[in-house]
Write a structure and sequence with these properties.
Layout (H helix, E strand, L loop, with lengths): L3 E5 L3 H10 L5 E6 L3 E3 L4 H5 L9 E3 H4 L6 E5 L2 E5 L4 E4 L4 E3 L2 E4 L3 E3 L17 H25 L6 E5 L3 H17 L13 E5 L11 H13 L2 E4 L4 E5 L2 E4 L2 E4 L2 E4 L3 E3 L2 H4 L10 E2 L5 E2 L2 E6 L4 E2 L12 H19 L14 E6 L2 E6 L2 E4 L1 H14 L3 H17 L11 H4 L9 H13 L1
Parallel strand pairs: 1-2, 1-9, 2-5, 9-21, 11-12, 11-17, 12-13, 19-22
Antiparallel strand pairs: 3-4, 6-7, 7-8, 10-18, 14-15, 15-16, 20-21, 23-24, 24-25
């Protein structure tokens, strides 16, 4: 009987491990609580209505359907029996393994203030992206409705907490929506007057890129109209406002883009973890007390030879998945395992239309060239040709027309509003407009 490999998680790490084990002398079972793989670097494009969810997600079963030695199970892993080599699922089922790869990913962390999530959602899943898109679009719709009914335009305020790649991308995209994509669609309000503010607790945004690219990113954001506040810690979040230091800031939409917490599956493994819940792994990515269990991706904590930790980015997860699969195959061949070495192919972050920063092969890029690099690299890594073609067409259309193709708000509008507003009759609105005309 062939060795059984169970993979928990269908993100970059788990999926790349499965693909590396395809058509090999192993029986593979991939377990995920979602039926789809999400290309997370483009989630913010769904959140800001550039792309539809189906363009950055693909059913895991479809991705792996041609590999006869791989089975996909829809379910949620909730625990492990390391003595009996079992994975426990939420419905009470158990799945046995010879080798286990845990790639449960990570979620955003609110640093012990989980109640903030309701008022300041983060961005890790398709559901998060759709919810953020709903809040952004509904804010403009509510402002239009209020201006129509009262004759007064309220000040729209968007707040993004965190100056990492996700925060920068969200802030830039919201500013672009307000100043271009929606500018001609609303009649009672001027969407271009919307304020977008980004709050970062350190003294730089995108600090991992170095001072010069970080400064360039800040300048590019500000050129889009984004207010960048450095050394500014958000200390509290309430409905429609955030507290920065001792000051409360009004906000129609608050988005959380700082802090990462690894999947709680790390603790379920009863392994040593760091403060963010990442599991300390051996150089071959296995557990110290069980060489047949591997932890990869955002769940793994491993120091490189240069003393820096392996970053929690998708290329690292992909490389970990492939490396783990190769070590399992080496075990089967009774060959020595190899330590994992991360190959940094470069990093990049997009800021807005024709605006980005990138560093690769010792060179640094900014502006349009970096944006083009970012565009084609992300399209290249999308799962499936259909996705690549659809995304490229939509991006090209958005570039030419500044239109957004996925501006949908689903659900009943009145039920979706966070806070009921005093009703104003249409008759009163008409009277005010007539009075304004008479003046």
């Amino acid at each position: 009987m062939e060795p059984k490999v169970v993979i928990v998680g269908g993100g970059f790490g788990g999926l790349w491990a499965a693909k590396a084990l395809a058509k090999k002398p192993v029986d593979v079972t991939l377990i995920d609580r979602k039926n789809h793989h999400v290309f997370q670097p483009l989630l913010y494009q769904v959140a800001t209505a550039v792309l539809s969810p189906g363009e950055i997600a693909q059913p895991i079963r479809r991705i792996l359907h041609k590999y006869k030695n791989i089975e996909v199970i829809l379910g949620q892993a909730v625990g492990f029996d390391k003595d009996r080599n079992l994975v426990r699922l939420g419905d009470g089922s158990e799945i046995g393994y010879d080798y286990l790869i845990v790639a449960g990913g990570a979620r955003h962390s609110y640093f012990g203030n989980d109640d903030w999530e309701e008022d300041a959602p983060g961005l890790k899943t398709i559901e998060d992206a759709v919810e953020i898109r709903r809040r952004i679009l509904l804010a403009f719709e509510d402002a239009e409705r209020e201006a129509y009914l009262t004759g007064k335009q309220k000040q729209l305020n968007f707040v993004v907490v965190g100056g990492g790649p996700t925060g920068v991308e969200l802030a830039g995209a919201i500013a672009d929506i307000a100043r271009t994509a929606l500018a001609n669609d609303f009649k009672a309000i001027d969407t271009r007057s919307a304020k977008v503010a980004l709050y970062e607790g350190s003294d730089a945004i995108l600090s991992t890129f170095g001072d010069d690219l970080s400064d360039s990113a800040k300048e590019q954001l500000e050129s889009l109209g984004v207010e960048v506040h450095l050394n500014s810690f958000v200390t509290d979040v309430e409905p429609e406002r955030v507290k920065v230091g001792d000051d409360w800031i009004d906000a129609d939409v608050v988005l959380w883009a700082t802090g990462v917490a690894a999947s709680p599956l790390g603790k379920a493994l009863e392994a040593e973890t760091d403060k963010a819940g990442r599991v300390h792994v051996e150089p071959d990515l296995s557990l110290k007390d069980d060489r047949n269990i591997f932890v990869i991706g955002d769940m793994a904590s491993l120091m490189q030879k240069n003393g820096e930790p392996v970053p929690g980015v998708s290329p690292a997860a992909m490389q970990m998945g492939t490396a783990t699969a190769k070590n399992i195959l080496r075990d089967i061949k009774v060959e020595p395992r190899e330590d994992f070495e991360y190959w940094d192919k470069g990093t990049m972050a997009t800021i807005g239309r024709r605006k980005a920063i990138a560093q690769a092969a010792g060179m640094k890029f900014r502006g349009f060239i970096a944006w083009m690099m970012w565009l084609f690299l992300h399209v290249f890594f999308l799962i499936g040709f259909r996705n690549r073609l659809a995304v490229l067409v939509d991006w090209f259309w958005a570039y030419l027309t500044r239109e957004r193709s996925a501006r949908l708000i689903t659900g009943d509008a009145d039920e979706l509003r966070h806070q009921a507003k005093p009703p104003v009759s249409a008759a009163a609105s008409t009277a005010k407009r007539h009075a304004k005309t008479a003046d």
